[in-house]
Design brief:
The complex is a heterodimer of chains A (about 500) and B (about 350). Chain A is mainly alpha-helical and about 500 residues long. Chain A has 22 helices and 2 strands. In chain A, helix 1 packs across helix 16 and helix 10 runs parallel beside helix 12. The termini of chain A are far apart. Chain B has 12 helices and 11 strands. Classes of the chains: A mainly alpha (about 500), B alpha/beta (about 350).
Amino acid sequence: MDALASLANGFAIAMTPTNLLFVLIGVTLGQLIGALPGIGPSAGMALLLPVTFGLDPVTALVMLSGIMYGGMYGGTLTSVLVNVPGEAASVMTAIDGNQLAKQGRAGQALAVAAIGSFLAGIGSVTALVFLTPALSSFALNFSAPEYFLLALLGITATASLGTGSALKAMIGATLGLMIALIGTDPIQGTSRLTFGSLDLLEGIDFLPVAIGVFGIAEILVSMEQTQSGQVVRTRLKDMWLTGKDWAECRMAIVRGGFIGLLIGLMPGAGPTVAALLAYVVEKKASRHPEKFGHGALDGVAASESANNSAAHGAMIPMLALGIPGSASTAVLLAALVLLGIRPGPMLLTEQADLVWGLIASMFIGNVILLIMNLPLAPLFASVLRIPYSYLVAGILIVSLVGAYAISLSLFNVGLTLVFGMVGYLMIRADIPRAPLVLAVVLAPMMESALRQSLMLSEGSGVIFVQRPLSAVLALLVIGSLCLPLLSFLLARRAARRAGVAEALSHSPD
Amino acid sequence: MIQTNTEMRSSVPLHLRLKHTAIAFALGAACLAAPTALQAQGAPTGPIEITTGTSPGGTPDVLMRRAAKILNEQKIITNPLVVQNRTGGSWMVAANFVMGKQGDRNVVLCIAQPILTTPITQGLPTLYDKLTPISMFIQGDLVLVVPESSPIKDMKQLVELAAKRERSVKVAGAQSGSTDHMVSGLVEKAGNVKLNYVPFDGGGAAQAAFLGGNVDFMTLTPGEALPLVKGGKARIIAILASERRTAPELKDIPTAKEQGYDVVWGQAWGLAGPPGLDAETVKFWDEAIAKLVANPEWQASLKENFLRSQMIPAAEVKPYMQKLHDEHLALLRDLGLAKQPAVQ
């Protein structure tokens, strides 16, 4: 009840006209920044940090955090419409969202993403209200061994990501792991496979890879097809969710939201990893896993719910302990410091008004974003009525400007084009592209966590089963590897039995 | 603070021998320069870019944005100041951008630790001696913390524990070659022990590992450490300054030096111009920074975060940087991280 009283107080603070206005400004900016590839929410927030200098701390924070979760909504847009992830966390949305768009169902994809993000967002803010102290101490149980196993779980799941053979998916993942090796060794600090190039010293950013293999490759393939009629012919009223769509996505949103919250809590993993894992889990749980990769609405629902939920979940360790769970919360912490507030374990009690005002503003912001996104979904989707030959120039410009914006260097633009060609070859060779991108995201976490674990245990592998959480994760990894094998064997045995039975029934007497 | 902390760590250590001269100069310069307009014929025209090598939100970035805002708002500099993030190559992308702007009056580089350390660890030509020195004007302290539940109460107990078995005491910190890593090296040297340094992906991740009870101690800034102490999560065992700090929150923290271990290390940030920048522009910046340092709003904003602003002016910054570089080189070589040949 204490929490409810504080929350009521928080609403009183968040509902003042100034704060409401800045929530609106924040989420609108977030929506725009999220939609632009290259500039993610964390960069957008940081660029707007100086604007907040003169503001009241609550006002400044509600605006900045509005950008953070607004970006999660906005990123969906370019992912679905043009297959260029607006920000890293939307990369899984691009896989199915764009397929849906090609089938003329962009409106449904955008609508379900908005609803999923909204429900998951509200869900995790509610968790934030009631469970912050408990969840934050839980988050600290995660350290290097758990992160390694989590990443390993993600990598083993890539085998199931492709629509075709598991072997081809593993080829994609291996390629991704190799790309991730380039850069600076995370433990020794020495350069690795950089061939003396300074541009490669910090490794290959995930965004040029994603924009290249998804966006640019798609354009290259489309140029081979000479037909002009790639226009999606749908009426506005057809771009709406049906009861069947909704039934399909309900549980995906719940699962995605829950996974997102859990991953968002961990200080070492952010919305991108959350969306990846939610998608993979959803594929396993779905009644039609074969649709994943070919336009599964529940795939979009799961990954979008997860990334928004993770963005909110990352606030929990930040508010309770002063530890950021994502790049965006790191900027929020910087903002707090600049406003003269020292984040840390005492924040919740010393700055109760600030914290509860912020939490209340997140309820309001999510409502605003839902109102903003839901009616506009069919409208945005109708962009696809533009003939593809005109649209393609726009996609190319957005992609390359996005690549340039990552670090204001032409090197990333070239890299994006190179990965566009890699993506094109992968499409031609029928190698799924998602495992590659997934591996690029997970590999750095997997590598440094493995080496950190072994340093912490002074070389003993027991650390991966000794700790309760890592033991559970280790079991999951083993399970995810053995289950397909087991079900394969069982299916074969069942088939053989059936065969025997059939043979018996057909045998003459 | 995934980003923030990384950058906090990656900043230039400071030895405080120059402290008094710096204060005297800063005050003097501020008094003398106050009424004169800076827009004499020597001032650059048009917008000026302040290049930083961190992503937006990193400590040097935040400090530069804050400085730029006050410089512009107080009309100390009327040219629009634009902070630009050119990330990549551990600051080398930013540094090379400025290095290529020979004599350009409209660009300056934020100086942070990687400007010194990246060339050393990557075996590249040094940068600090080729850029035109302007000023170092922001400094910060470091403290050593142990978990609240730790039996370690002071430096002596820490070193004794580490001496029992080689590499048995674990230290969390940011990337290899960061400030944290160098501090760990200094503790090893002063206590004649071997520690188990575990690098994490930035100071935030290291702090999470520390709070989760996975390591024995770590290095933090006072701004990070004090809230943890207040929340009953950590205990400060030493401040790495040459003498005790005077701020009420810090005055009771013993220095490592007074506990008998010569571990003195800190952080510093500043500005430098491209190679061959003319003396008039250097003077323009020198005067502007003197006014900034004297500005109460600037001083207050730094004090809140336990940072200090003492100016090492253009005239003195060259030997200062040389000394910093040599200290870094010696330490990184001890840690086995230096690729650069010894300075002649």
